[in-house]
């Protein structure tokens, strides 16, 4: 029998780990173990060579503006290959700062514009004050109950603006993408 094995690429674990985003990787590793699936985590930091096509899953966490600014150019340079792999069906979970940089751009609280990969049609502008606290969103993912529960901590307000980009859920509690349209994630 061939051994089943998943390779997860964890992008920028050193910088993009604002509030224990690494826990997502630990949960996936544990779930794989329960199912007898081998699980390898490949950490990818600024300057590391990495071929997205060799990964089965990609994870990227969030970061403060300073950390996000540190990794932004490196992430953008990986854009063509990563977007090609995503278009080819590679699943990616991106939290907050990682998610923001998959849109067209993220503007820091200090006004710097960090270009994103443009994988989906969205942009992020700084808001008045940080959105911090618990979030509950209702999803169409077909899960029972249909609610996702999490924690948010972001200064940026993300707006989905076209194409088939749809939010992950409708916010029942908290701010979500921008505090206005009730969307959360993508
Ligand atoms: N939680 C985060 O990843 C924060 C992302 C970004 N620096 C913001 O404040 O909006």
From TrEMBL:
Q: Which SUPFAM superfamilies match?
A: Class I glutamine amidotransferase-like
**Annotated GO biological process:** cell wall organization; cobalamin biosynthetic process; peptidoglycan biosynthetic process; regulation of cell shape
Give the record's pathway.
Cell wall biogenesis; peptidoglycan biosynthesis
Per the record's keyword annotation, is NAD included, yes or no?
Answer: no
Q: Does the keyword Cytoplasm apply?
A: no
Q: Name one GO molecular function term.
A: carbon-nitrogen ligase activity on lipid II
Q: Name one Pfam family in it.
A: GATase_3
Stored Gene3D superfamilies: 3.40.50.880
Q: Which residues form a coiled coil?
A: none
Domain of life assignment? Bacteria
Which keywords appear in this protein's UniProt record, sorted alphabetically? Answer: Cell shape, Cell wall biogenesis/degradation, Glutamine amidotransferase, Hydrolase, Ligase, Peptidoglycan synthesis
Residues annotated as domain CobB/CobQ-like glutamine amidotransferase: 9-182
The EC number(s) attached to this protein equal 6.3.5.13, 3.5.1.2
Record field: catalytic activity: beta-D-GlcNAc-(1->4)-Mur2Ac(oyl-L-Ala-gamma-D-Glu-L-Lys-D-Ala-D-Ala)-di-trans,octa-cis-undecaprenyl diphosphate + L-glutamine + ATP + H2O = beta-D-GlcNAc-(1->4)-Mur2Ac(oyl-L-Ala-D-isoglutaminyl-L-Lys-D-Ala-D-Ala)-di-trans,octa-cis-undecaprenyl diphosphate + L-glutamate + ADP + phosphate + H(+); L-glutamine + H2O = L-glutamate + NH4(+)
**Amino acids binding substrate:** 130
Identify the catalytic residues: 96 (nucleophile)
Purpose of the protein = The lipid II isoglutaminyl synthase complex catalyzes the formation of alpha-D-isoglutamine in the cell wall lipid II stem peptide. The GatD subunit catalyzes the hydrolysis of glutamine to glutamate and ammonia. The resulting ammonia molecule is channeled to the active site of MurT.
Which family does the record claim for this protein? Belongs to the CobB/CobQ family. GatD subfamily.
Q: Summarize subunit and interaction data from the UniProt record for this chain.
A: Forms a heterodimer with MurT.
Name of the protein described by the UniProt record: Lipid II isoglutaminyl synthase (glutamine-hydrolyzing) subunit GatD
* Organism of provenance: Candidatus Hydrogenisulfobacillus filiaventi
Q: Which gene encodes it?
A: gatD
